[in-house]
Every structure is written in structure tokens, then in C-alpha cells.
């Protein structure tokens, strides 16, 4: 019985192979090496809709490649899509809450870049902590160690109202009261309402001294020359002030925080 179970599968296989006796399944199909057959089997088949004569179909003309592209025309760089405004400057000169006042943001894109706050190489014999004002270039330098300085753009006094020399920043004040000196009142009677005898102008965003004032003395005497903030950011880099050094309000706050007591100052 076991012999029959083993014999039937073998007999079935022999019956299935019998019709294939005319071809040898172990011989490779060499016709696949025929170039003619290869072309016949691999030639592409194109879609030809009924009623369309392929010889009468006109090809679509090549479209010209544009030479320039208007990528991000207004708010971004042409190539990389990066914001035009420097994010560092945006942070430094953005809206700032200080004491009881909120300083508005400064439109830094409208200020010449060299007049924005930046650390620079600066070789000088002055000690770190000294303030140096270059009246020709309209720069104020706060001298740091290792040949560096923090540089700020400033607005300066008109010719005839400026002061030069070496002095000491005797004291400094946050949100100062403005009391124009007698000489200014005599030249500009419209400021008499803010004279010392009338109590001066209250601190605030429109106060000409801005958010900070630093008072310059020489030989113990007030020079009436000040470093101060200004709401008039357009005056930076120009000679418009009456004998004082104007700074952007955000910059004068930064300088105030860096300045040591009784700091030396050189105006040249």
C-alpha cells in the first residue's frame, strides 16, 4: 500500500511532462539575442486617436525661457528670499518700554547703516570706559578693552555752537527735565516757556533731551555741553543741534548703561 502512494505521484509527473517532450526546457531561448526581435518587443506604442493623421499634427513651438524673474520684489532679497532688514538692528531699535514711557521703533532702513550701533576695531591710547567723539565723522566711541569700541552715530552742534576738548561726564540722568540755558532763550524766545525760571520742560517722548542726558564738565565747571537722546532720529549724522551731541534714544540708553561714574570724554 505504501508503494502505491509513492508510485502515483511519479506517474502523474511523467504524464504531465510527456506533451513537452518535443521541446527541451533546459535549452535557453537564444532568439532573445536577436536585434530584430528586441526592436519589435521594445518599440514604443503611441496613442493615435481615431480620425487624426499624425503627419498633419503641428508640434507645439518651444517657449522662450525668461531671463529675469521678479522674486519677492519688495520685501525680500531677489535671490535668497531673506528679509531686507537686519534682524539684529530690528531688535536693537524696536519699540522699547523704559521707565514710564514707551519708545517707538526707529525705522532703521531709513538711517544710514554706518550710524547704527556696532562694535568696531578702534586703536587708541584712551583708557577703556572713555568716550571719544569724532565730530568730523559724526561718531561717538565708547572705548573697550583689546582694541575694540562700541560706535554710535550722532548728530552734532552747528558750527559756532560746538565744544571741543577734554572733560568729565560729571553726572547723568534718566528722562531728564529740559531747561534751555539763558543764551538759548535769548536767541530763541519761543523756548522761554521752558526756561529755568518757568520750571523747564517735563520729561517725555517730545522732550529734546530724550531718554537720557549726560552732562559734561571741565575743571569743575559745567560746559553746557550734553550727550542726550533725541526723538528726531533724522538728525543723526547731521550738524543740527545747538551745541550738544544727539543720539538715537535706544542708543543713548545703551551708552548710559555702559558708562562708568565720572567717565572721561574727549571731543575732537
Automatic annotation (TrEMBL):
Chain ranges of the L,D-TPase catalytic domain: 129-268
Pathway: Cell wall biogenesis; peptidoglycan biosynthesis
Active-site residue numbers: 228, 244
Domain of life: Bacteria
InterPro entries per the UniProt record, alphabetical: LD-transpeptidase, LD_TPept_cat_dom, Transpep_catalytic_dom
Pfam families to which the protein is assigned, alphabetical: YkuD
UniProt keyword list: Cell shape, Cell wall biogenesis/degradation, Glycosyltransferase, Hydrolase, Peptidoglycan synthesis, Transferase
SUPFAM superfamilies listed in its UniProt record: L,D-transpeptidase catalytic domain-like
PANTHER family per UniProt: L,D-TRANSPEPTIDASE (PTHR30582), L,D-TRANSPEPTIDASE ERFK_SRFK-RELATED (PTHR30582:SF24)
Membership in a protein family: Belongs to the YkuD family.
Name recorded for this polypeptide: L,D-transpeptidase
Species of origin: Rhizobium bangladeshense
Amino acid at each position: 500500500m505504501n508503494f502505491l502512494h509513492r508510485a502515483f505521484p511519479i506517474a502523474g509527473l511523467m504524464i504531465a511532462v510527456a506533451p513537452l517532450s518535443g521541446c527541451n526546457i533546459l535549452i535557453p531561448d537564444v532568439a532573445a539575442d536577436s536585434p530584430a526581435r528586441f526592436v519589435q518587443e521594445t518599440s514604443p506604442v503611441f496613442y493615435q486617436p481615431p480620425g487624426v493623421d499624425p503627419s498633419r499634427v503641428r508640434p507645439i513651438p518651444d517657449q522662450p525661457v525668461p531671463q529675469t524673474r521678479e522674486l519677492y520684489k519688495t520685501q525680500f532679497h531677489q535671490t535668497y528670499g531673506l528679509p531686507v532688514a537686519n534682524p539684529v538692528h530690528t531688535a536693537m531699535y524696536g519699540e522699547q518700554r523704559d521707565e514710564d514711557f514707551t519708545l517707538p521703533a526707529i525705522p532703521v532702513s531709513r538711517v544710514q547703516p554706518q550710524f547704527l550701533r556696532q562694535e568696531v576695531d578702534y586703536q587708541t591710547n584712551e583708557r577703556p570706559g572713555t568716550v571719544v567723539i569724532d565730530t568730523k565723522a559724526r561718531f561717538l566711541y565708547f572705548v573697550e578693552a583689546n582694541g575694540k569700541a562700541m560706535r554710535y552715530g550722532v548728530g552734532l552742534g552747528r558750527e559756532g555752537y560746538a565744544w571741543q576738548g577734554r572733560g568729565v561726564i560729571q553726572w547723568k540722568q534718566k528722562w531728564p527735565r529740559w531747561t534751555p540755558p539763558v543764551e538759548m532763550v535769548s536767541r530763541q524766545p519761543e523756548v522761554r516757556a521752558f526756561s529755568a525760571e518757568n520750571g523747564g520742560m517735563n520729561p517725555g517722548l517730545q522732550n529734546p533731551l530724550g531718554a537720557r542726558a549726560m552732562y559734561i564738565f571741565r575743571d569743575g565747571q559745567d560746559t553746557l555741553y550734553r550727550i542726550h537722546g533725541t526723538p528726531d532720529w533724522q538728525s543723526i549724522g547731521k550738524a543740527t543741534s545747538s551745541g550738544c551731541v544727539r543720539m538715537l534714544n535706544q542708543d543713548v540708553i545703551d551708552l548710559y548703561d555702559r558708562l562708568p561714574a565720572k567717565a572721561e570724554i574727549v571731543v575732537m
